[in-house]
């Protein structure tokens, strides 16, 4: 792999720290720059991984000329695209894992409006830094026709979580669109629940939520229906959130004056717990026979570890001989899914594939 400086914007956060640690282990010669608003926190992480600390504010990012040609990884929210624009102007390879659907579209428009790009810009903000979408591609690999894709997420309430996770879930009352039988359909979060059996974790109710996968996977797989739902391993928490959204109370709580109330409900991170994803792909094989494939992913180290691994795989790809040419990309459309499965297993993430009757 190319030895290039890697600027981890948000590299001292929960996910960013794990990205730095993983890169140092997997690419020991990498030159890591841990960038964040709090220089002391950045210095602590940089010291632990043998990197360099840099103070940076994503709302007004400045990088010294000595970092020209570096790869920039956006591991913290970039709400006004300032970090993205800096990478585009300076011609620096870029990967972002922090955007919900509307902000992902915003980023893609920003990149398209820049004109001819001088380096690849990778938007890997689909679930768990695009790993879920890559696993959908893996499950779909030998099915020439894909009819439906369903993602069911079981989120552990005692898992680690950073502020970005809370911001993502904070938008539950915002409408979004999914493709259903080839038609874009308006949806609301935490509604239309169904019961899902998760391997070794029992049955849990999951409800709709907004994730970029529902916009990208119809294009990538050709599926006519793509749905994503989420539930919590604490069934009471799932029921509470469902009732708050269904009753309209959550919409009222979305006002700025209730920020602390929503944070108290959504952002209570623990020390870590298993993160589970169940992918169901329905399609047809080469003979036209209907086939249902089920892929279950279980990361015992939790969703922050899985997200960090997804980010690392995207960074490694941008530094490899197989790196894409200059242009704008979705992370779930890059990478070889079979290679990703192998890397997941090497990092102690369980991937189980079965066929439904």
UniProtKB/TrEMBL annotation:
Gene3D superfamilies: Dihydrodipicolinate Reductase, domain 2, NAD(P)-binding Rossmann-like Domain. The lineage of its organism: Bacteria, Pseudomonadati, Pseudomonadota, Alphaproteobacteria, Hyphomicrobiales. This is Saccharopine dehydrogenase. It comes from the Bacteria. Signal peptide: none annotated.
């Amino acid at each position: 792999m190319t030895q290039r400086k890697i600027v981890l914007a948000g590299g001292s956060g929960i996910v960013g720290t794990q990205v730095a640690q993983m890169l140092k282990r997997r690419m020991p010669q990498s030159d890591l720059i841990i960038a964040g608003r709090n220089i002391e926190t950045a210095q602590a992480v940089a010291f632990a991984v043998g990197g360099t600390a840099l103070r940076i504010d994503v709302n007004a990012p400045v990088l010294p000329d000595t970092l020209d040609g570096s790869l920039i990884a956006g591991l913290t929210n970039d709400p006004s695209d300032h970090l993205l624009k800096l990478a585009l102007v300076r011609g620096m390879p870029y990967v972002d894992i922090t955007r919900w659907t509307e902000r992902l579209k915003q980023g893609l428009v920003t990149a398209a409006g820049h004109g001819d790009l001088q380096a690849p810009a990778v938007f890997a903000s689909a679930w768990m830094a695009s790993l879920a979408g890559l696993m959908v591609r893996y499950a779909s690999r030998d099915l020439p026709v894909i009819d439906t894709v369903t993602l069911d997420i079981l989120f552990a309430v005692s898992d680690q979580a950073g502020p970005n996770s809370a911001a993502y879930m904070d938008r539950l009352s915002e409408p979004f669109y999914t493709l259903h039988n080839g038609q874009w359909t308006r949806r609301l979060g935490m509604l239309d629940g169904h019961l899902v059996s998760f391997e070794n974790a029992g049955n849990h109710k999951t409800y709709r939520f907004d994730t970029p996968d529902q916009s990208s996977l119809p294009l990538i797989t050709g599926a006519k229906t793509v749905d994503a739902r989420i539930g919590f391993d604490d069934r009471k928490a799932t029921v509470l959130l469902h009732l708050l959204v269904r009753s309209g109370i959550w919409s009222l709580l979305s006002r700025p004056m209730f920020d602390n109330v929503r944070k108290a409900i959504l952002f209570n991170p623990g020390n870590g717990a298993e993160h589970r994803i169940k992918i169901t792909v329905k399609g047809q094989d080469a003979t036209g026979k209907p086939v249902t494939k089920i892929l279950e992913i279980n990361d015992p180290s939790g969703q922050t570890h899985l997200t960090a691994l997804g980010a690392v795989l995207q960074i490694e790809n941008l530094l490899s001989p197989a790196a894409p040419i200059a242009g704008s990309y979705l992370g779930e459309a890059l990478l070889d899914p079979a290679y990703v499965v192998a890397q997941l297993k090497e990092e102690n993430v369980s991937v189980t594939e079965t066929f439904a009757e």
